[in-house]
Amino acid sequence: MSSPVIDSPRSPYARQRTTRSNFELYGWIFMRASGVLLLVLIFGHLFVNLMTGHGVHSIDFAFVGGKWSNPFWQIWDLLMLWLAMLHGTNGVRTVINDYASKDGTRLVLKALLYFACVVVVVLGTLVIFTFNPCPPDAPADLLPSLCFPS
Fold first, then answer.
1. Where are the bilayer-spanning segments (predicted)?
2. How many domains does the chain have?
3. Looking at residue 52, what is its pLDDT?
4. When comparing pLDDT for 126 and 56, which is higher?
């Protein structure tokens, strides 16, 4: 049994791939930019949900329904969802590239990762834009208080 050969620390770096794509550079830049933007979006989200009104005790179905009736908050939450999913997917993609040694394993893991990302982004987007706290045909005893004019 032969032991693996380790290159000398002073030997020049040999590229494993011959592609001339800047995809990894753009991924690195995206992680930095989306991280900064996510900090603003998440802390704004936490401030509005926890510091205004009665704090965590006021978060209920009516609170979310009232918030998502405003297009500003729909876009805010949509940006937060999309950036968080793309940021996390890019980070996990990097981990898969670093630690999955077999090409087949790497392909399967990344396919599952991309599938999960697409499913969460599509379903989350649908929920944000189709959410209706006051469906027109619902029984009155099941509707939240915000559906009735005071």
1. 25-48, 68-86, 107-131
2. 1
3. 83
4. 126
pLDDT tens column, 31-63: 999 999 999 999 999 998 888 878 888 888 878
At 68, phi and psi to the nearest 5?
-80, 0
| Of 78, 83, 60, residue with least CA distance to 133 | 60
Residue 139's pLDDT is what?
Answer: 82
Place of tokens 């834009």: 129
Which residue has tokens 């209706």?
A: 132
Question: Token match 């006051």: residue?
Answer: 134
Q: What HEC string does the chain produce?
A: CCCCCCCCCCCCCCCCCCCCCCHHHHHHHHHHHHHHHHHHHHHHHHHHHHHCCCHHHHCCHHHHHHHCCCHHHHHHHHHHHHHHHHHHHHHHHHHHHHHCCCHHHHHHHHHHHHHHHHHHHHHHHHHHHHCCCCCCCCCHHHCCHHHCCC
Q: Could you tell me the CATH number of the domain that includes residue 66? A: 1.20.1300.10
Q: How confident is the model at residue 8 (pLDDT cuts 50, 70, 90)?
A: confident
Place of tokens 């649908």: 126
Residue 68 and residue 103: Cα distance in Å, rounded?
A: 43
Question: Which residue range is the domain that position 112 belongs to?
Answer: 23-147
